[in-house]
């Protein structure tokens, strides 16, 4: 029987079953990504066991760094919980496409000036914010991504 022809309770059960299968599939894909050794530490500060991710940047991050990413806005960094949020296929696909923390970091950190380094797991919030803003919001990134340097993705100026 097709979903379109199903009625009432049967249709509801079929939809619930589909949602459970889809959610389980996405959860497994996300778990597989977390098994990569480079994804077992925060992409920004190297804190162990990150429980958050920036779906559009493609990195796993810790609780302390996720606040910095959230403050940038979802047009720059869409933060989701690895365990609490339901992930769409597109969000998972984006994470897989990037290839994990080390792939993303090799792109974003390639243009760091000499002497500029990541904050450690015990860094202050101010140090984290400075690093996160420098890494993901400077106009140089818009040039790298082929966008206009003067504005962000949705016409907002980059946060500096």
From TrEMBL:
Keywords: GTPase activation, Metal-binding, Zinc, Zinc-finger. It comes from the Eukaryota. Pfam families: ArfGap. GO terms for molecular function: GTPase activator activity; phospholipid binding; zinc ion binding. CDD domains: ArfGap. Residues 24-136 form the Arf-GAP domain. PROSITE patterns: ARFGAP (PS50115). This is Arf-GAP domain-containing protein. It comes from Kingdonia uniflora. The lineage of its organism: Eukaryota, Viridiplantae, Streptophyta, Embryophyta, Tracheophyta.
């Amino acid at each position: 029987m097709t979903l379109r022809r199903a009625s009432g309770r049967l249709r509801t059960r079929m939809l619930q079953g589909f949602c459970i299968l889809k959610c389980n599939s996405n959860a497994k894909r996300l778990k597989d990504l977390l098994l990569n050794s480079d994804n077992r530490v925060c992409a920004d500060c190297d804190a162990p066991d990150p429980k958050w991710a920036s779906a559009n940047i493609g990195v796993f991050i810790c609780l302390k760094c996720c606040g910095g990413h959230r403050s940038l806005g979802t047009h720059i960094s869409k933060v989701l919980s690895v365990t609490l949020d339901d992930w769409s296929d597109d969000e998972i696909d984006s994470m897989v496409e990037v290839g994990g923390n080390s792939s993303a970091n090799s792109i974003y950190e390639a243009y760091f000036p000499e002497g500029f380094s990541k904050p450690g797991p015990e860094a202050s919030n101010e140090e984290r914010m400075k690093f996160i803003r420098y890494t993901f919001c400077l106009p140089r990134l818009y040039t790298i991504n082929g966008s206009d340097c003067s504005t962000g993705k949705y016409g907002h100026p980059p946060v500096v």
